[in-house]
Amino acid sequence: MKTTISSSLAFQLMSLLFIGLHGLSIMEQLQAVTVPPNLIADQLNSAQLVADVFIESLNSMNDPDAITKTIASATILKVHRANSRQSNVRERDTIDIEVLGGELNGLGVMYSGLPRPYTGQSYRVFLNPINSNGINRYVITGFEKGLEPLTQMRKSSRNRTDGSNGAGNGPFLYWDPRYFPIQFLISAPSFVSNPSFVEAIEESFKPWRNDADISVEFIAQGCNQSTKNENDSLNTVILVKENWPFESAAIAVTRNFYISGTGSNAGMILDSDILLNGVSFSLTTTGEAGKHDIRNIVTHEVGHFLGFGHEVAVVDEEATMFASAVAGETKKRTLATNDIQVLRSAYAGVGTKFDNQNIHCAVADKTIGCLSVHSSETKNLNYFWLILYLLTTLGLGKWTTKRYGFTSGSLNRQK
Ligand SMILES: [Zn+2]
Asked: What are the CA-CA distances from residue 119 to residues 102, 105, 116, 163, 164 (Å)?
């Protein structure tokens, strides 16, 4: 058992170390959202141009540090709907579509649940024109529903490194079972006035590890002080209470950093943070009217955390990974058959369980602080982790760099 803990910790901490040293050139990031369905429908209905297009090329994304964007060059195959201003758009015209995410110098960004097209694929797109520095461009509206593949290729709801939800050719995203249990932390500043939210979040990880036929295991590591979504190898659940950086319609966003390329470790997730939108939405653990149930939302986000995308054919609206959620809903708390199928396909096997070693994040009790524990074993575990951390920082970084094939990055965004 200790071997497993040590390799997990070593991996996490070494990730932290070499990411700091080498920047992010070998990683990509992926994010995911949950949106109320009425907002998606409103956006699709109000689209000013609806057309079938072929994606000719994708340019490099602009700025990987901020809200990243890429220009997709698309040829119009057919116009389905155009308002008066768009009535001059014709078949075979080429248009520029600005999309979130993209790739640059080995760094990729994807927001799962937000549209990221790929070259050579045809889509029905729901577009609105924008004027960007005097250049006419379009943006996709209606989240991923606004970018509908014309050939239904998606057979899986596992995210791939190419940004697809199963249809593409990139390796699948995954957590390596050798480093289970996957640690996660709760942002103490986020939840200091809502300790019941913390318990609900901790509960939300459990459905994804309870199945007897899978190897997934999580271990709660208590609180941390983070309020930022960053690639620090600390998987943190954060409630954003001001300056929500994404579309206001998104209830939550999960971002994964993973190893890109085609090597044997490509797709391996290194860091995942879950952000809850406390700016536009009210969250609850007690079913208050008009509020979103924490477990309903976070259980869905933990699916993204594990590398899963939204429901694909056959779509089951009862599934945890169905794309949207309404206030008061609780059905995503429990996994549906489709969720369990994708879970078993990604993480088949029998893993070690760490039931009694979780550290509860006691946000409200400042005298105990973040290391309030459930079991006596946990304290030993903490020392164990501390020792490993020291060992790691004292010179195992080279080993890790060699082992995972990381090289010095040309892109250094960690400052
Ligand atoms: Zn989602």
From this structure: 12, 17, 10, 11, 11
**Ligand 1 mean position, distance from CA 362 (Å):** 28
Q: Ligand 1 centre from 118 Cα, in Å?
A: 20
- The C-alpha atoms of residue 209 and residue 190 are separated, in whole angstroms, by 25
Which residue shows structure tokens 């529903």?
145
Dist. CA 203 → ligand 1 center (Å): 18
Cα distance between the two ends of the chain = 36
CA of 331 to the centre of ligand 1 (A): 14
Specify the CATH architecture of the domain 47-140: Beta Barrel (2.40)
Can you tell me the distance from the alpha carbon of 75 to that of 246, in angstroms, rounded to the nearest whole number?
28
State pLDDT tens for residues 170-215.
889 999 999 999 999 999 999 998 999 999 999 999 999 999 889 9
- List, for residues 16-45, the tens digit of each pLDDT value: 333 322 222 233 444 455 677 778 888 999
Buried b vs exposed e over 270-279: b needs ≥16 C-beta within 10 Å? Answer: bbbbbbbbbe
For the full predicted model, state whether its pTM sits above 0.90: no
CA nearest neighbour of 192 among 73, 346, 366, 325: 366
Domain spans in the chain, listed from the N-terminal domain onward: 2-35+171-404, 47-140
For the segment(s) 2-35+171-404, the CATH number from 3.40.50.2300, 3.40.50.1000, 1.10.760.10, 3.40.390.10 is: 3.40.390.10
Q: How far is the CA of 113 from the centre of ligand 1 (A)?
A: 6
In contact, 98 and 71? CB cutoff 8 Å: yes
Which positions ≥6 away from 244 have C-beta within 8 Å? 250, 277, 278, 279, 280
